[in-house]
Amino acid sequence: MIDFxxxxxxxxxxxxxxxxxxxxxxxxxxxxxxVTFALPLLALAGFLSYxxxxxxxxxxxxxxxxxxxxxxxxxxxxxIFIIASFLAAVYSLHSSNKTEQSTIAIYAGSAIGAVxxxxxxxxxxxxxxxxxxxxxxxxxxxxxxxxxxxxxxxLIHITSGLLLMLGSILHYQQTGSILFNAxxxxxxxxxxxxxxxxxxxxxxxxxxxxxxxxxxxxxxGTVALSAFTTKLAVYCLARAYAGTESLIWIGxxxxxxxxxxxVLENDLRKVLSYSLNNQLxxxxxxxxxxxxxxxxxxxxxxxSHILYKALLFMSMGAVLHRVGTxxxxxxxxxxxxxxxxxxxxxxxxxxISAFPLFSGFISKGxxxxxxxxxxxxxxxxxxxxxSAGVLDHSGIKVPxxxxxxxxxxxxxxxxxxxxxxxxxxxAAACILIGIFPSVLYQWLPHxxxxxxxxxDHIITQLQLLFFAALAFVVLFRNGWYxxxxxxxxxxxxxLYRKPLNHLVAAMATGFISLLAGVQNFKHNSLKIMxxxxxxxxxxxxxxxxxxxxxxxxxxVAVLLSACLVFYYI
Amino acid sequence: MxxxxxxxxxxxxxxxxxxxxxxxxxxFHHKHGHFEFEEWFGFYAxxxxxxxxxxxxxxxxxxxILKRDEDYYD
Lengths: 569, 74
Fold this sequence. Notes:
The complex is a heterodimer of chains A (569) and B (74).
Chain A: H1 2-10, H2 13-24, H3 29-48, E1 54-60, E2 63-70, H4 72-91, H5 98-116, H6 120-139, H7 146-175, H8 188-200, H9 208-213, H10 219-227, H11 229-240, H12 245-264, H13 268-289, H14 292-323, H15 339-352, H16 359-373, H17 377-403, H18 417-435, H19 437-441, H20 455-477, E3 488-489, H21 494-497, H22 499-537, H23 549-568
Antiparallel strand pairs in A: 1-2
Helix pairs in contact in A: 2-3, 2-5, 3-4, 3-5, 4-5, 4-10, 4-14, 4-18, 5-6, 5-10, 5-11, 6-7, 7-8, 8-11, 10-14, 11-13, 11-14, 12-13, 12-17, 13-14, 13-16, 13-17, 14-15, 14-16, 14-18, 15-17, 15-18, 16-18, 17-20
Chain B: H1 5-28, H2 43-66, E1 67-68
């Protein structure tokens, strides 16, 4: 029994990465680089040593726990998380930031541990490790806003953790089980856990932590961050809330509203963060539809999205590394000095825009097909609208304004070799999945009969994309396209960064003056009391006056005789 | 090279040609969709073009309300 146990935990890919990450903190530079590179491979070997179906049940603290559960859904998410951690590791090889490099391994490990968790307690533990480690990655970014943005990020993710804990406790009280399975939002416990996942999934109005914090991490940090937290949330939603109808609408809103911000935003890494948010929307819609086909679509889209989004963040990270900024207003013409990065960025852009032969085409297609199968024509039109938006902000804006547009004559070197290698591998994966979708489809949780390369699908997608591109040409050549200007745009976080912030500051000032007031009152009342006591008991007070003993005797006699009189009456 | 008028025109006209080509397919080929409107002539082309225009132009109007200086929160 113990052997069985140890074996399973030694091979646990999440634990391999977490322990390895902790060990890396104490290693010198080159050794750390070798371990960074080797750890995801070790984790992969450990993971592949597991059978495809596994539930490890233990009894601890009086609970029945499933710390490891492998089935179709958790299998594919674990696989892509391991792949993402490998790509991020290669991308980070040039870095000498010890904290960041080792924390990325811990962060990836915690996300994998959470995906493999079959009970709410294990999920909660890994949930919190991922929140803390990702905060450290943001802090390690070393940019102007990294500290403050990291603190805001931490507060929001701790809230998510608290909701998960509260929900889990209530769930246990109601059902007597702490296993993590399908739930409903009709109970309070289910709703609390739903909100915990929703925060991490960047639901509308809970989304600002993402656009606020991700651009504040380092080039390497953002690549790692983009892969795990939000897709962990998508996995959890797919696990517990598949077929919850409100998710269809939440997801649809998520695909649309970030587009407008992405169009206006000047910092291209922030544009990509809004675009990440919009891509999550497609996955959330898939979860909401909840059919086997739709859940396959969500899993497939999460898989290809992690790759192309990492690729786009890698290319912008390379630009940040070499030029020192990713502001569109300061970029342009970089294709001359960074030709490889340009090519890789364009591959990422074509993948996210879902051009045929690229990964987005074969994954987003499943979700749209599943939505249409269920007859949700409004949602379907919304998703199609959002697809045109994706072409703008990620397909055209990001590569166009950094590598072409107005030449700013930046003289810089091409990205470091390891960055190019990571981008090259990721780009190859995007194209491989795009051309041979069966590579990905064989790993999906459910059997399905879906063929992305039908004549109709190819031609309609090309019509949509080419004519959307035509709209860009019309807008740009006529000077109607919004100019890239140094600015920021207000989003929902304005509420807690301005008025709420002022309110709290005012309350704090109020509280401080209240405290001062209390202190003052204490001081003054003490003074008054002393004065009063001095008056009564001081040397000149009435009490201090000497009175004769005779007086006293007379009064005692009077009282005693009064007593006698009363007694006889 | 990329910034020459000739090259920009080449790219633009290639795109025009591609648009014309994929639209022309609708004349000869009858699409099968889940919804009736999918089968209309040029539905995807028109929807893509209009969506893109609506997104960019409405974002441009939104900017008037939402735009602030970079140091707004500092």
